[in-house]
Amino acid sequence: MSHKKIKFFYLPLNRQVIFSLLLTVILVSYGVIEFDNTKSEQAVFNPQPKAYYQGPSDKDQMALAVNVAWGTEYIPQMLEILADEEVAATFFLVGNWVEKFPELVVEIKEAGHELGNHGYRHRHPQKLVEEELIALIKKNEDLIQDNADYKTSLFAPLMVK
């Protein structure tokens, strides 16, 4: 049995090496941050895409958005609290949830809340081709329309940072 001799290489840490390493870390970090901050908008149902990042600052208002993708245990209590406090919210619904709980979709709508489209299933959009993503958004649009007689005007993208 032969043993291989392990060789260690040492890099002298002079100012030029330290500066080069630091510059590399800064440039890579900047690239990652910029890549993560890229935002794209695409029209699906409306020819003029418009993403809302904040509302008018001259009014004392806020928007309450609820993404609903699984479970039912909190919805009735939320609806009751929102009604007691006279607060309206936008419920962004995932399509496979709409299929499982159509009666809650109707209950949310009848309580006076806005319904929004959150795609058909909670899957990372970068794992889908564009045509599949659009088809899943449209599928949920049709489900909400068919179950609650409601045409959504808002879409909340999945898993966006």
From TrEMBL:
The terms under GO molecular function for this entry are: hydrolase activity, acting on carbon-nitrogen (but not peptide) bonds; metal ion binding
Gene3D superfamilies attached to this UniProt entry: Glycoside hydrolase/deacetylase (3.20.20.370)
Tell me, what's a Pfam family for it?
A: Polysacc_deac_1
Q: Which GO terms describe its biological process?
A: carbohydrate metabolic process
Q: Which UniProt keywords apply?
A: Hydrolase, Metal-binding
Question: Which InterPro entries does its entry note?
Answer: Glyco_hydro/deAcase_b/a-brl, NODB_dom, Polysacc_deacetylase_ArnD
Can you cite an annotated GO cellular component?
membrane
Q: Where is the NodB homology domain?
A: 60-161
Under the heading PANTHER family, the entry gives: CHITIN DEACETYLASE 1-RELATED, GLYCOSYL TRANSFERASE-RELATED
Instruction: Please state what the protein is called.
Output: Peptidoglycan/xylan/chitin deacetylase (PgdA/CDA1 family)
Please report the organism this UniProt entry assigns to the protein: Halanaerobacter jeridensis
